[in-house]
Structure formats: structure tokens, C-alpha cells
Design goal:
Layout: H1 2-13, H2 16-23, H3 27-33, H4 44-56, H5 62-69, E1 74-79, H6 85-100, E2 104-109, H7 114-126, E3 131-134, H8 143-149, E4 154-157, E5 166-169, H9 171-184, E6 190-195, H10 200-215, E7 225-227, H11 232-242, E8 251-254, H12 257-269, E9 279-281, E10 298-300, H13 303-316, E11 325-328, E12 331-333
Parallel strand pairs: 1-2, 1-3, 3-4, 4-5, 5-11, 6-7, 6-8, 8-9
Antiparallel strand pairs: 10-12
Length: 343
């Protein structure tokens, strides 16, 4: 153990000058080639520099570099919870996007509580993060105003309150595509399990749902638009409600995959088969849905692109007074949970 510590200490004393001398290049060339934030060069010189650094056991002193730059190269990510597959997926993609530009992501969770959101932000800022990516923001949330007043760089990802730069999925388009798919299969009695109105993503998906029905000349049955939580139990309870009356939908658009899975499970317990008796569309394309006994038709959200654009926006925040919003389109993934309507 002591030998390992001694080895790391010796490596930490290797300087850029020594690497430059070994590689036969200037110190500035070594610094540029070993800077993780820059595109990786595969030139002969770059390979020689990296080989020299490896041979000498050079370890880049990130803390010293950041001290000179006045940054820590860390980004704080705030999400409601990591037990939610979608939030875990966006965090992982944000972490990867950070690594590609030489940054490191630190995550904090809020459980959808405003006071926890403030505490999470304060904790991350005390740790010296260079900026925040918020996936926990709610419609009407004034939290972004407080961050702006303090000069804290931030970007919104997946959700928005309309008050700041944001990288979002095109949720209205997704809601439209989901509903249009059901309409194209001949369904006219379409219900929506809509999530909560504090989430801009759920609100936009419902806008797309309503637009598709309106274009088809079909009125929305408001009793079939159910506001729920975003979990399995919420989907199960909503399915029970929709099928507790004589008039029943022939298709359901669920605002996320968890809701759809919960609905399918409850319907199975009631003897209602998917898609024989009812077609169901989910949203997000979390990994499990393609492995269900009846694989779920859903909208695939490009979390990697949303994350990459969020980190790009964060880098641009200090250089622009305008709040740019970037939308990334989802893709409909038809599977066996939807079928042609049979009266």
C-alpha cells in the first residue's frame, strides 16, 4: 500500500517540461494534447506525447489547472430521483456529455420537493460546481429567477418553466405522434393517462394528444384524460378507473412507460388483453419495455442528444444573454402493444 502511495507521489511530481523533453516538443504542445476538453488528436506528435506521458507516469494535476482557470470543471445535475429510470438515464447521458468535454458530473436529488431543490443547489454550489443542469424544475417554479439573480449559470433539461436556456425533447410532437399512431390504426375512443401538470413534458404531450384528435375531428372525452403520478401504481389505478364504467376506451396513450406498464399489469388482472381488447402506447422507450411479454409501443426519446445539447448550452450561458431552447424530436417505435381496432 505504501509502495502505491509512493508511486503516485512520484508520478504527481512529473512535470509538463519533463514530458515535453521526452517527446521532443514544447510544453505548450504537451498541454494542448493532454487537455481532455479539446478534440483528441491522432497525429504522430500527439501519439508520441501521450506515450511519453505514459512512460513517465505523468498525472495531470487537475486541481492546479482549474485553480489557474478559476473553475472546477464540475457540473451539478439536479433530478427528482434516481429510482426513476428516465431520470437515471438522463443523468448518465449528462455525465457522459460532461466527460467528453473534460468535465465531471455530480448529482443531487429532490424527490419533487422545492425545499430539497434549493438545498441540493446550495450543496452543489458550495462544492464549487461551475454550473447547474436542472431536470427537476416545475411549471411556474421561480427557482431559476433566484439562480439568475446570483449569477449562477444553469440550463434546464427535459423539463422547463419557460425561464431559462433549455434542452428538451419535442414532447408536443411526441404526444401528437403517439395519438396519430392510434388514430391510423382505426381507434377513435382514445384515453390519456396524463401525468402531473407541474411537469412541462407531460403538459406538452397532452397538447400533442389534443391536437391530433382535433385534426381528426374527434372530441376529447375529458373523463378519459386522467392526471396521475408517473409511477407503476398510478398507471394501474388509472386503468382500473378507465375500465370501471360501461363505456370504455379502445386505446390508451400513457404519458410515460412506467404508467403504461402499470396499466397493462392491472388490465391483465381484470382479464383485459393488450392489444386484443385495448391498445397502449407509452413514452420514453426505457430498456425494459422491449422485453415485456407484450413489447410496448412507445416514443423513443434521444436522451444522449438532449444531454449533449444541455452541456453545450451551459458552456454558452455566460457568452449569451439570450435563452436558447433546443428541441430534439422523439421517434415512434411500434411494437405489439398496439393493433388495428376491431369493433
Amino acid at each position: 500500500m505504501q509502495d502505491d502511495d509512493d508511486q503516485r507521489e512520484r508520478a504527481s511530481r512529473i512535470t509538463l517540461y519533463e514530458v515535453a523533453a521526452a517527446a521532443g516538443v514544447s510544453k505548450s504542445t504537451v498541454s494542448r494534447i493532454l487537455d481532455e476538453r479539446l478534440p483528441r488528436s491522432e497525429s504522430a506528435t500527439a501519439k508520441r506525447v501521450r506515450q511519453a506521458a505514459s512512460n513517465l507516469g505523468y498525472i495531470r494535476d487537475v486541481s492546479a489547472v482549474n485553480l489557474r482557470r478559476g473553475t472546477t470543471s464540475t457540473v451539478g445535475i439536479i433530478v427528482p430521483r434516481l429510482t426513476d429510470t428516465v431520470m437515471a438515464m438522463i443523468y448518465e447521458e449528462l455525465a457522459r456529455a460532461c466527460l467528453r468535454v473534460g468535465r465531471f458530473a455530480i448529482v443531487a436529488t429532490t424527490d419533487e420537493k422545492p425545499e430539497a431543490e434549493q438545498h441540493a443547489a446550495e450543496t452543489l454550489l458550495r462544492r464549487g460546481v461551475d454550473g447547474l443542469v436542472l431536470s427537476s424544475i416545475k411549471v411556474g417554479d421561480p427557482f431559476t429567477q433566484a439562480l439568475r439573480a446570483r449569477g449562477v449559470p444553469f440550463v434546464l433539461a427535459l423539463r422547463t418553466n419557460g425561464d431559462g436556456p433549455a434542452s428538451l425533447g419535442d414532447d408536443e410532437l411526441g404526444g401528437y405522434l403517439a395519438t396519430r399512431h392510434l388514430l391510423d390504426l382505426g381507434h377513435r375512443r382514445i384515453a390519456m393517462i396524463a401525468g402531473r401538470s407541474f411537469a412541462s413534458s407531460a403538459v406538452a404531450r397532452q397538447v400533442g394528444f389534443r391536437r391530433a384528435l382535433h385534426e381528426a375531428g374527434i372530441g376529447v372525452n375529458e373523463e378519459w384524460v386522467l392526471e396521475t403520478n408517473f409511477d407503476l401504481d398510478a398507471g394501474a389505478d388509472a386503468a382500473s378507473s378507465l375500465f370501471s364504467t360501461e363505456e370504455r376506451p379502445s386505446a390508451i396513450f400513457a404519458v410515460n412507460d412506467n404508467i403504461a406498464i402499470g396499466a397493462i399489469a392491472r388490465l391483465a388482472s381484470l382479464g383485459i388483453e393488450v392489444p386484443r381488447h385495448v391498445s397502449i402506447v407509452g413514452y420514453n422507450d426505457i430498456p425494459v419495455v422491449r422485453h415485456l411479454p407484450t413489447p410496448l409501443t412507445t416514443l423513443r426519446v434521444p436522451f444522449d442528444q438532449i444531454a449533449t445539447r444541455a452541456i453545450e448550452l451551459l458552456d454558452n450561458v455566460s457568452r449569451s444573454a439570450n435563452y436558447e431552447v433546443r428541441l430534439t424530436a422523439p421517434t415512434l417505435i411500434p411494437r405489439r402493444s398496439t393493433a388495428t381496432h376491431r369493433p
